[in-house]
Amino acid sequence: MKKFNNVHLLFIFFLYFSGTTHSLFSPSSKSKTTAHPSATLTSNEDVKTYFFKQTLDHFNHLPKSYTKFKQRYYVNFKYWGGANSSAPILAYLGAESEMEMPDEDFGTDNAASFKALLVYIEHRYYGKSVPFGSKEKAYKNANTLGYLNSEQALADYAAVLIYLKNSLHAQESPVIVMGASYGGMLAAWFRLKYPHVAVGALASSAPLLYFDNITPQNAYYDVVTRDFKEASETCYKFIRNSWSEIDKVASQRNGLSSLSQRFNTCYPLEQSDELKEFLRIIYIYSAQFDYPLVRNICKAIDGASFGSDVLSRIYGGVVAYHESNKCTVNAYKYTVAADTFNVYEWQRCTEIVMPIGITGNSTMFQPMPFSLKNYAKKCKKDFGVSPRPHWITAYYGGHNMKLVLRRFGSNIIFSNGLRDPYSSGGVLKNLSDSLVALSTVKGTHGMDLMAASESDQDWLTEQRKKEVEIMHGWIKQYYADIDALE
Amino acid sequence: MKKFNNVHLLFIFFLYFSGTTHSLFSPSSKSKTTAHPSATLTSNEDVKTYFFKQTLDHFNHLPKSYTKFKQRYYVNFKYWGGANSSAPILAYLGAESEMEMPDEDFGTDNAASFKALLVYIEHRYYGKSVPFGSKEKAYKNANTLGYLNSEQALADYAAVLIYLKNSLHAQESPVIVMGASYGGMLAAWFRLKYPHVAVGALASSAPLLYFDNITPQNAYYDVVTRDFKEASETCYKFIRNSWSEIDKVASQRNGLSSLSQRFNTCYPLEQSDELKEFLRIIYIYSAQFDYPLVRNICKAIDGASFGSDVLSRIYGGVVAYHESNKCTVNAYKYTVAADTFNVYEWQRCTEIVMPIGITGNSTMFQPMPFSLKNYAKKCKKDFGVSPRPHWITAYYGGHNMKLVLRRFGSNIIFSNGLRDPYSSGGVLKNLSDSLVALSTVKGTHGMDLMAASESDQDWLTEQRKKEVEIMHGWIKQYYADIDALE
Questions:
Q1: Which residues form the signal peptide (chains A, B) (predicted)?
Q2: Please, what sign has the CA dihedral across residues B341, B347, B350, B353?
Q3: Which of A284, A287, B44, B315 is most buried, by the most CB atoms less than 10 A from its CB?
Q4: How far is CA B88 from the centre of its chain?
């Protein structure tokens, strides 16, 4: 199974339940990340940890705006060609999770070819980059959480990068920013808003268009469905039919108890929705991150080693997912990372409002329409705030992106794996000569930004190679532009 | 004399005294603007006044951020071709003054040829667009003034324009934003930050590069000096020599009293600096706004009708400036618009930090170096805030602009009159094919955005014609791009 222990690219992925706002779902339960004993110390001798005195509020001049907090970032000097040769800087933009000491990744793989300085910057309010002195204080309420948003985060990144370039006398070193998922959106947005800081951006699996109804709400689940259908048409049908079967059993006398038993749940089910949610999550998790897992689940469902009725088949899929007979449903609860859960929820309850839902019967799931009203109600209850569903498109754009960016902006790679359900909200067509979409038919979420391994398939190696070539092209052009100006 | 009663383009210009932060200087004393009796009513029947429920703080999600205030804007429907034909929208971005009912201007001149909707949006904290219910409350202290800055203002403009396009079903209507001076910077920045809202920008006399030491501090006064030298080499020399002459007289017994008498001051001078500041301001005012006035002043100085010694000549220049023998020095005090003075000072004390000063002896003035230390001290004293002199370039860029924007962004006209001292901080060379500098040798500050008149010289008419042609080109290309997408 593919491991996700590349911590600074840890893809916490956000599932969307109709009418509820809960549910960051960390893949860390599937493949534990090893927390570094002390993040302020260096474990990797090439990488140094720093803290930047960051401004709390870049966009106002209230007395409180000037408050500072410590933002963590890491620098790997090993491959850098130095300021004198204006050697490039590759900057990883942190996203919605702690950024632990970086180990190996896409950048390290390629740093030598770029002679690049590697910089990794943690996102405000995550990990050690927390204002107000502690998470307890920072997460307290809307008055302290209010400064957590993407606009402030981008301004943080600009401040760190400008500071670094100045202090290394590397003003002419071109910076390329990169990130995946939410971090990929940040990378693309950073290039659009701070072109004077970054010459280009690699935005991996960034669902930039899953806002403000640009993308149909069903699109995410349509891809999940397509993935399973592709793995096995019969498997798809069994899953599709399983929901009503679960409902049927649940409605019978002792039905919930029977379901609890048949699915080996860790505790007696109180409602069938617990089971259905659990199943839905393992399907979308597999589709998003791990297509071989989709195949294994379907193999088990089709194989019927636990029995050939629908529910036994589905349970077989669960066992394949877990790769064991361990108890179910409860397991899901542990996957929610307690430490980041609330704080990314805050982002979802304010600006990161992605209307993902299920309507009609195009998917293999039961309908679960997105309801902004219920979503807002939950946010009001949890945080006392109302979501601003139109703000992201007001600030960053998104509608008519092809028209708008055809003659504006440059040097962004939008990479997507088409098996990733989030690819449905990604940029899948070139917007211009240098705003380029790189899609792989077989890819899943953010694969290209993970460290290369010998087991990688050719198409993935090829995708990474293309990305590196394009980025080399940006840098070459940048140097030529400098020379032309002098 | 050229009149400046075009209220929404009223160029309040900001002079820079070394070590002090005071001095917005409104030209309104030279040519009174007639305040509209009630700005909520329509005097011009083609123009309607509206108020938009604006968000106080776009960039945070603090409970207070969601506070609303009324932002005033005007719409002129007279020339508009309508939403069905995707007819364009010309939007004037308000700057650091009240925006009164628009009368005639560049837009109206050309609205028919564009079939354009004309929109005029007042800048937050000015005129009737004031948060917290009243100017008294809004201007109270840093806790209420803190939301006054260019980033919030741009987001305001985006919100109004998006709202307008939606409510008029004019989503496909291309928007071109325009403004002069600070408003010109806003227009250029708006196109760079909100390309999805505006297809282009006309930035007239926008000193975008007068930040963070991109432009030498002397540049402004070098242009003033050049203007006077061009008008008359002897006049330039008289002015240049006058300062030490004033110092000499002032240092004598009864010298100040003698100066007061010779310059017909409205009150007895307490120090010679009062007189010197007054003189400096009439010179730079004339150079910035009114070159014929420079010529008249020099004619009087050279003509020596009040006597041929230096001080009599200089007084002759003052009389020519006033076009009368009215008392001097005090007059300057009245030119400071009480209503906008403090609030733009706030902007200068936070982000709009332009290091303009005089060093060495390249100018016709005495040295007056820019001192960030003194500037900051004054801001601390006046508002309790410290300036952020690097923020504008961090957020908008500015350093290496030619390199950065060569391959990023499009559709901005940077227009400048080279006699305008602020042109020294403007973009005077094309950055790319569609980021175009249009300079006129004889132009002064923001002339192109004023209403055309029969007395306009050919080069000014020609400049406006070029601007209109370029803007028509943007719109044509935009329509072609839409067609190509469909």
A1: 1-23
A2: negative
A3: A287
A4: 25
Give the 3-state DSSP-derived string for A357-414, with helices as H, strands as E and coil as C: CECCCCCCCCCECCCHHHHHHHHHHHHCCCCCCCHHHHHHCECEHHHHHCCCCCCEEE
- Give the residue from A96, A64, A152 showing the smallest Cα distance to B61: A152
Calpha distance B151→A60 (Å, rounded): 9
- How many CB pairs below 8 A link A and B? 151
Give CA–CA dist A58/B303, Å, rounded. Answer: 55
- Of A442, A482, A439, A437, which Cα lies nearest the Cα of A458? A442
How far is residue B371's CA from residue B374's CA, in Å, rounded to a whole number?
5
Shortest alpha-carbon distance between residue A411 and chain B (Å): 9
Annotated catalytic residue, options B26, B28, B181, B415: B181
Residues with Cβ < 8 Å from B308, sequence gap 6 or more? none
Q: CA–CA separation, A306 vs A300, rounded Å?
A: 9
A356-398 pLDDT per residue, tens: 999 999 999 999 999 999 999 999 999 999 999 999 999 999 9
Q: What are the Cα distances from residue B115, in Å, to B90, B195, B475, B476?
A: 10, 22, 11, 13
| Single-letter amino acid code for the residue at B182 | Y
Of B473, B476, B485, B475, the C-alpha closest to B433 is B473
- Indicate if B445 belongs to the active site: yes
Q: How many CB atoms lie within 10 A of CB A338?
A: 8
Residue A173 · residue A200 · CB < 8 Å: no
Q: Give the span between the Cα atoms of A200 and A409, in whole angstroms.
A: 10
Distance CA A434, CA A201 (A): 11
Q: Which residues contact B273 (CB under 8 A, 6 or more apart)?
A: none
Distance in angstroms (rounded) separating the CA atoms of residues B356 and B366: 14
* A155 min Cα distance to partner chain B (Å): 7
Instruction: Assign B90 to helix, strand or coil.
Output: strand
Closest CA of chain A from B408, distance in Å: 5
Distance, C-alpha B273 to centroid of its chain: 26
Stretch A345-361: mean pLDDT: 96
Position of tokens 């449905």?
A: A424
Tokens (6 digits) for B106 = 């560049």
pLDDT digits (tens, 9 = 90+) for A151-164: 999 999 999 999 99
Are β-strands A68-76 and A47-55 bridged in parallel, bridged antiparallel, or unpaired? antiparallel
Q: Please name the residue ranges forming H helices in B263-371.
A: 272-289, 291-303, 310-322, 330-335, 338-350
As a dihedral over the C-alpha atoms of residue A70, residue A71, residue A72, residue A76, rounded to 10 degrees, the angle is -120
Q: 3-state class of B153 per DSSP?
A: helix
pLDDT score of A338: 46
Q: Which amino acid is at A150?
A: S
Q: Which of B195, B384, B399 sits opposite A408 (nearest CB)?
A: B195
Predicted confidence (pLDDT) per residue in B443-456, tens digit: 999 999 988 888 99
Q: A475, A174 in Cβ contact below 8 A? A: yes
Asked whether residue A335 carries a pLDDT value surpassing 50, the answer given is: no
Sheet strands (E) in B370-434: 412-417
Instruction: Please tell me the pTM assigned to this model.
Output: 0.92
Beta strands A68-76 and A117-121, pairing class: antiparallel
Contact B239, B298 (CB under 8 A): no
Say which of A195, A197, A402 has its CB closest to residue B485. A402
Stretch (H or E) spanning A451? none
Q: What is the secondary structure of A93-160 as a DSSP string?
A: EP-SS--PPP-S-HHHHHHHHHT-EEEEEPPTTSTT--GGGSHHHHTSSHHHHTT-SHHHHHHHHHHH
Q: Give catalytic residues of A, as residue numbers.
A: 181, 420, 445
Take residue A94 and report the two structure tokens written for it. Answer: 């942190």
Interface test with B, best of A55, A61, A67, A386 (most B CBs within 10 A): A61
